[in-house]
Amino acid sequence: MSTSIVHPTASLGTGTRHGEFCLFGEGVKIGNGCVIGHHVIIHDQTVIGDNVRIDDGTVIGKRPMKAANSATTSDDELDPCRIDSNGIIGTSVVIYRGSDIGRKVLIADLATVRENVKIGDFTIVGRGVAIENFCNIGRYVKLETNVYITAHSEIEDRVFVAPCVVTSNDNFVGRTEERFKYFKGAIIKKGARIGVNAIILPGKTLGEDCLVAAGAVVSKDVPSKKIATGMPARVIRDVPAEQLLENQGWKDD
């Protein structure tokens, strides 16, 4: 006797298998060859591609909670969560309804992906990473352990974000009605790199192929192909030519 609950309208593809105490909601569609662990909950209408691995205790398609005074959570109806093929979703991950996850994405243990988030192909979301709502994450991005991506952020392709980097979106720190007009997260352009424990203040743009040093506090935009360091961060020199994205020989699939 199965300990899992599969709604009559849910469909599981050929060769897909799951562990004990799972719940698959109404209209869920899971592709071929998926491997799903124990105690996994997949909420209504979620769509999962082929050959996706989902580890124990993960929740996919969760609806957001809206506090009475929330500044960023919307009451709008959300599209179903979608996860493309050949991805890996770790243990105790929470992925909200209204998120769109590309192919061959890895989302590691204890990560959270909020609603209205898009993550491009081949991106790695590290252990304990939190991606808040209304964010776009590009292709081949690496978000290392415990990175915090605030709501309304934009991260382009091939960006590298080292562990414990923090972004922010509210220059008024939760006070005055004026703050609602200026909410904006980080804008991180293609190939930018951010060192461990750096802080990016609201609405700042990191230019293409720039490098923000470990521990820096970015209070002004960083130009493309420049290195910025310090508190507050200041440009000190150019990124060495051999480190530029154009000289890595990488090709996008």
Output the CATH class name of the largest domain.
Mainly Beta
- The geometry reads as globular
What kind of sheet is the major sheet? 12 strands, mixed
Question: What average pLDDT do the residues reach?
Answer: 95
- Just name the CATH architecture of the largest domain: 3 Solenoid
Strand order of the largest sheet: 3-6-9-12-15-18-21-24-27-30-32-33
Give the number of domains.
2
| End-to-end Cα distance | 44 Å
Strand tally is: 33
Give me the CATH superfamily of the largest domain: Hexapeptide repeat proteins
CATH level 3 topology of the largest domain: UDP N-Acetylglucosamine Acyltransferase, domain 1
The DSSP helix count reads: 0
CA radius of gyration = 19 Å
Low-confidence sequence ranges: none
What does this structure look like?
- The chain has 253 residues and is mostly beta strands.
- It folds into 2 domains: 1-66 and 77-98, UDP N-Acetylglucosamine Acyltransferase, domain 1; 134-253, Hexapeptide repeat proteins (UDP N-Acetylglucosamine Acyltransferase, domain 1).
- It has no helices and 33 strands.
- It has a 12-stranded mixed beta sheet with strand order 3-6-9-12-15-18-21-24-27-30-32-33, with no helix packed on it. A 10-stranded parallel beta sheet has the order 2-5-8-11-14-17-20-23-26-29, with no helix packed on it.
- Strand 32 and strand 33 (234-238) form a beta hairpin.
